[in-house]
């Protein structure tokens, strides 16, 4: 997606850029929906691929069922990050990644663990995904709707 968005953005094909974003988002949502269904349908079997301990499988089942609540919505931040990188805007993409992996998840996990114990940490994941998705969608739209300066060497 990144090089295709970058090429079309450089060619000032704004309609194509938006279509590529929407298509990538739809594909990501489908993949993440499948992942969510698998995590809800066969969580014990999935964890069982990595451990035979009944205690680990039970804890992993709970974790997968809770964390997977954020899978579908995470598509927005993942695709927005990739699109922003394709547009040559690494700063907003980095900001989204920092939000997701440090600025939101760590405080949320700390707070939720104090409220609900270990299960609270798993809830911090989907809450962070929802917040990051909203922020990333805003950043992407704000960036994409900026006027594009004329290319050097072109008559305006």
Structure overview:
By secondary structure, the chain is mostly helical. The protein has one domain (2-144). The chain is built from 8 helices and no strands. The protein has helices at 2-10, 14-41, 43-48, 54-67, 71-86, 90-103, 105-116, 118-144. The chain is elongated and about 55 Å long. The model has no long low-confidence stretch (mean pLDDT 91).
In terms of topology, how is this protein built?
Elements: H1 2-10, H2 14-41, H3 43-48, H4 54-67, H5 71-86, H6 90-103, H7 105-116, H8 118-144
Short précis:
The protein has helices at 2-10, 14-41, 43-48, 54-67, 71-86, 90-103, 105-116, 118-144.
SSE order, as H and E?
HHHHHHHH
Runs in which pLDDT lies below 50 for 5 or more consecutive residues are none
What is the rounded distance between the termini? 29 Å
* Helix percentage range: over 70%
| Total of domains | 1
Indicate the overall shape: elongated
Largest sheet: none
């Amino acid at each position: 997606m990144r090089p295709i968005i970058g090429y079309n953005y450089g060619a000032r094909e704004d309609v194509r850029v938006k279509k590529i974003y929407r298509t990538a988002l739809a594909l990501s949502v489908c993949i993440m929906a499948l992942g969510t269904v698998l995590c809800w349908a066969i969580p014990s079997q999935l964890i069982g691929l990595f451990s035979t301990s009944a205690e680990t499988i039970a804890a992993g089942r709970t974790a997968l069922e809770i964390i997977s609540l954020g899978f579908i919505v995470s598509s927005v931040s993942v695709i927005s990050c990739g699109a922003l990188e394709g547009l040559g805007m690494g700063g907003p993409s980095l900001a989204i990644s920092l939000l997701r992996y440090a600025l939101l998840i760590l405080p949320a996990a700390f707070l939720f663990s104090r409220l609900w114990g270990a299960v609270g940490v798993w809830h911090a994941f989907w809450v962070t995904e929802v917040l990051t998705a909203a922020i990333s969608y805003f950043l992407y739209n704000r960036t994409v709707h900026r006027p594009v300066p004329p290319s050097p060497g072109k008559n305006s």
